[in-house]
Amino acid sequence: MSTTENMNPTIDPAAGLKAHAWRDTPDVRGHFGPYGGRFVAETLMAPLDELATAYAEAQQDPAFKAKLDADMADFVGRPTPIYHAERLSKKAGGAQIWFKREDLNHTGAHKINNCIGQAMLAVRMGKTRIIAETGAGQHGVATATVAARLGLTCVVFMGSEDMRRQATNVYRMRLLGAEVRPVESGSKTLKDAMNEALRDWVANVDNTFYIIGTVAGPAPYPAMVRDFQAVIGRESRRQMLERSGKLPDALVACVGGGSNAIGLFYPFLDDESVKIYGVEAGGDGIESGRHAAPLSAGVSGVLHGNRTYLMQDDNGQIMGTHSVSAGLDYPGVGPEHAWLKDIGRAEYVSVTDQEALAAFHECTRIEGVIPALETAHAVAYAQRLAATMSPEQSILLNLSGRGDKDMGSVAEAAGETL
Amino acid sequence: MNASTPSADNRLTQRFAQLRKAGRTALIPYLTAGDPYPDATVDFMHTLVAAGADVIELGVPFTDPMADGPVIQAACERALVHGTSLRDVITMVARFREDDAETPVVLMGYYNPIDRLGLESFADKAQTAGVDGVLIVDLTAEEAPEVVPSLAAANLSPVCLIAPTTGEARIKLICENAGGYIYYVSFKGVTGAASLDTDALAGQIEPIRRATDLPIGVGFGVRTPDNAAAVADVADGVVVGSVLVGQIAAHLNDVGAAQSALSKTLGAMRAAIDTQDSSRKAGQKQEGEHA
Q1: Over the range A2-35, which residues count as b (16 or more CB within 10 Å of their CB) and which as e?
Q2: ipTM of the complex, rounded to two decimals
Q3: Which pTM does this prediction carry?
Q4: Inside any domain, residue B98
Q5: Which residue in A197, A249, A264, A230 sits closest to A399, CA to CA?
């Protein structure tokens, strides 16, 4: 996994990628600059090595790529279109805003891109049991979906608090044949679900494959998940060139763990004219302390197998997070984002719950596209950014998921009941 | 040890040298510091020593103890209700040292609280307080070279984990950076999850013996005096954690009763280990006479 070629078997050379410093990341030990790496209990080192080897081999296997591409087309519905949000652009009064329509994927978000890749790897490795963590339930649903498709046993760990908030997704996972196991420890949310999944994996390494849902965790997960999600950036880079004859001037994506964002950003890293913005969950506002924005307000630390920016207190205890969107409600972030922030290639900003909700309603009403609440953070920032740019310029926004799952939260925020 | 890393000479290394000379097996109890409240911990440590502890592993509470089972998770949560920090735990060791200058203490926990305090600052404070070893559960051999020199400079032994999934090449790599003792995790799972398979243990320890002269302690799953004796038959140390922490959980409103329970549980293990050690010595003596 040391070379660029190995990491990116499906990158189209015609897309114009060139060698660059950040293409050498991660290093052989999974480090992005000082971030990433492997910080896990010793029992997991052997399965992680096994995974890294299997992934490197799969990348060299044309049959693996062909099968992945076929499923991406026929099962997921790729390529997803890009869409010129003309009315939203006009309203913002500046740059043209384009959506990359990941909401049109099967299961309603980008999550499935990664799940299919990892599940195919699990089958290749002879694993018969899949485990996953989930917050809002989108990654859990995507995992349960591919497990059903491939006939694998599936256990999804979900904080009991999140299960209550996302009851429909829990039911959906059960319909798909997955066991949803409530997590009662700690804050009973996504980070605790991830702890529990890691504990399960330690105890069941022989037959179990852990499908991590974001670009975090011990190496090789951050780079592997990025590679599976980079289809978003590869497609949209080509599509923008075809449709508008030039690259976008800016990319915008929401960042929780950061998988949809890195999927969009990665194939554009060498395009120095393209500015990159990751949008974190500002909750009640960064100054309130009630948010989920480790890149904006956190410090470096070690959690869930990797070094990254974390929301933590002075004693190194992980802090509770807050966001209106459960999918961004995580105290860490993928290590590659931490690195892109430090080297200045990407800029990370935040959007509050209120701003995200306003953008949710506006996007829904004037574009007829109901974004996920996570995605609505990116919409809000794209509107703000567009207003500072000229009409000849363009912003490519990753419309990472649809908002069907959020009807309850949105109604609750508006003081209504369904 | 690496050539660049000086071996520690502290209570921990001295204690194991004494035990080895005497043909005795170390009894190594674990407690989560600050459980059920910070003032109880030092008293518990003295209780453990009185009941036969040779080394104490003192757990540093963490919000996300991903390698621990429900018993130690709950202990961490109880300790964190009182805000027990790494600084507080170091202070507890200093207080313990006021009355016990002999018993080695190993801090066991996760890397983030150490990272936040600052590695150098942590090592310095820990050494000053009288800590002898540090076991960082989520610090892999790959990341350890950036941490171990700072521990070594403060005469702290870097205790390392080896698991049933660890292959021979990794065993060597781990042993290069390890000090004090090797902590062999007896099964694939989290702390306190299952009983250990003592029959398989000897074979599992064999490759570690080939790789290092360090003493080998075995933990995860030692629940009964019989377990302890069986481990003592093949290993140099017996680590007992969840069973003791469970005693504290069972007596949350009565620290005196918790102390009695700790004393009784650990004392029974001590007796079983001593019996095992004696019979082994007798066996060896007999073998010697026959030869």
Answers
A1: eeeeebbbebeeeeebeeeeeeebbeeebbbbeb
A2: 0.94
A3: 0.94
A4: yes
A5: A264
A23 has pLDDT over 70: no
Q: Are residues A254 and A326 in the same domain?
A: yes
What is the DSSP secondary-structure string of B106-124? EEEE-HHHHHHH-HHHHHH
Query: Picking from A224-228, A297-301, B186-190, B255-259, which range would have the lowest pLDDT averaged per residue?
Result: B186-190
A210 within domain boundaries: yes
The pLDDT value given to residue B290: 62
Given A201, A226, A251, the domain boundary residue is A226
Find out whether B145 and B173 touch, Cβ atoms under 8 Å. Answer: no
Please, are residues B277 and B236 in contact by the beta-carbon 8 Å criterion?
no
Same domain as A351, residue A398: yes
Query: B209 vs A103, A397, B205, CA distance in Å?
Result: 56, 57, 6
> What tokens appear for B73 in the block?
């998770």
Which B-chain residues 234-263 have CB contacts (< 8 A) with chain A? Answer: none
Residue B289: the pLDDT is 62
Q: Are B138 and A40 in contact (CB under 8 A)?
A: yes
CB distance B64 to A318 below 8 Å: yes
* Residue A7 falls inside a structural domain: no
3-state secondary structure of B22: helix
A208 contacts chain B (CB < 8 A): no
Task: List the domain range (segments joined by +) for residue A84.
Answer: 79-108+230-413
State pLDDT tens for residues A68-94: 999 999 999 999 999 999 999 999 999
Q: Is residue B291 part of a domain?
A: no
Domain count, chain B: 1
**Which of A232, A239, A197, A233 has the alpha carbon at shortest distance from A216?**
A197
Q: How many residues does chain B have?
A: 291
Instruction: Find the CATH number of the domain harbouring A296.
Output: 3.40.50.1100
Q: Does A406 lie in the same domain as A258?
A: yes
Is the per-residue pLDDT at A108 higher than 50? yes
Please tell me the distance from the alpha carbon of residue A278 to that of residue A257, in angstroms, as a whole number: 11
- Asked whether residue B32 is domain-assigned, the answer is yes
The answer to whether residue A159 neighbours chain B at the CB level (below 8 Å) is no
Domain count, chain A: 2
Considering A226, A250, A275, which residue would you say is the last residue of a domain? Answer: A226
Question: What is the average pLDDT score of chain A?
Answer: 93
Contact B64 A199 (CB under 8 A): no
Same-domain pairing of A88 and A152: no
Domain shared by A388 and A275, yes or no:
yes
Inform me whether the pLDDT recorded for B126 exceeds 90: yes
B68 is known as an active-site residue: yes
Integer angstrom CA distances of residue B161 from B63, B108, B109, B136 = 21, 11, 12, 9
Of residues A100, A102, A111, A161, which has the active-site annotation? A111
Interface test with B, best of A45, A181, A308 (most B CBs within 10 A): A45
* pLDDT surpasses 70 at B258: yes
Tell me if A186 and B66 make a contact (CB, 8 A cut-off): no
Residues A300 and A157 in one domain: no
Report the alpha-carbon distance of residue B156 to residue A286 in Å, rounded: 40
Q: Which domain holds residue B233?
A: 11-280
Tell me how far apart the alpha carbons of residues A389 and A186 are, in angstroms, rounded to a whole number.
44
Please tell me whether residues A100 and A174 are part of one structural domain.
no
Looking at the fold, whether A215 and A238 belong to one and the same domain comes out as: no
Q: What pLDDT band is residue B5 in, cutting at 50, 70 and 90?
A: low
